[in-house]
Amino acid sequence: MGHQVSEVELPPIFCPLETALHPRVRSVERRAEEWIHGIGMCGSEREAAWVVATHSAHFMAWFAPHAEDDDRLLATALWVYWGFGFDDARCDTGPLSGRPAQFNALACRVQRAYDAPSAVSDDPYVIANQDIARRFRSFAGPTQVDRFGHAQRAWLAGVAWQIGNQSAGVMPGLDDYLAMRLLSSGGEPTYALLELANGLEVPDREMHRPAVRALTEMAIMVAALDNDRHSLVKELAPGHADQNIHTVLMAEHSVPLQDAVHLATGLRDRVLLRFLDLYDQVRPTASADLRCYLQGLRYGMRGNNEWGLRVPRYLSRGHWPDVMELSELTYAEEPSDTRPGPVEGAPGIAWWWDRDLG
């Protein structure tokens, strides 16, 4: 696209949240690698190597660092491995990345296989997703399994929206992009994994509260915008999707990439500050399971950065994946934008700042 990504300065990330890593992540990772090679979803050894190199066991081990049951942690990590593999093979740069009708048909087959244990498919990614669904049903209640199913469906719908834009050559405006990214980033299913990994059963009357829904959406948005930052180099390389918060802001405001980075950082920090404020209002009256879920949102936002700033998926720039190093990271001490109130030009998320949410 002609953007000089190597010359762009990416500021440190503001993320004053707790972090912890599950102590048995290595053993879960070994079991996950055996599953990836055994389930046969990857079309080649190279594809399998890239799925392994997502280090999705570490990803979930930062999201659910205190999960007591390793089988639960493994099953949720398998979905993350599966999601990255599916994204690369079928969504991002795969043969369906510019064919929305064909992708929609595949997405419906994936979802039907998740919902129906008896569904039959010859697509290896559909078969693998169905295996994961069986694992979920083996240890989780129907409400949690169903909540995850709805979350996966939302993600597939968002990816379809994104692929439709790509196929039509459409660059969405800011409001549409943020709405799409809430779905296409995979945040809905990823945070739905928190209940499954931790053995939680958050009551409907709490999970469906507007304040809890707002906190979940804000956590999704923060992680999604952080991922746009992590993958900036990869996304602007030839052959990759060009829809990310930076290209959207460049088009929206007619500014160069560096200015778009500044604007995106400020937008993201304002969402995180609102999350922190609303979290403090909701937590005192939350049930034990909801408190664990809300803490998981915090672990998830921080863990997404602990993972994203190290993982070869973003750092190797398309070369053969390297090992992820657990080196120390540097974070910003202060937010880049502290303005209160809704983000300008984004009415679809303005309700997060409603005064009566708490």
UniProtKB/TrEMBL annotation:
Entry-linked SUPFAM superfamilies: Terpenoid synthases (SSF48576)
InterPro entries reported for this sequence: Isoprenoid_synthase_dom_sf (IPR008949), Terpene_cyclase-like_2 (IPR034686)
Cofactor: Mg(2+)
Lyase found in the keyword field: yes
EC number: 4.2.3.-
Regions crossing the membrane: none
PANTHER family in the record: BETA-PINACENE SYNTHASE-RELATED, TERPENE SYNTHASE
Enzyme class: lyase
Protein name: Terpene synthase
One matching Pfam family: Terpene_syn_C_2
Keyword vocabulary terms for this entry: Lyase, Magnesium, Metal-binding
Protein family according to the UniProt entry: Belongs to the terpene synthase family.
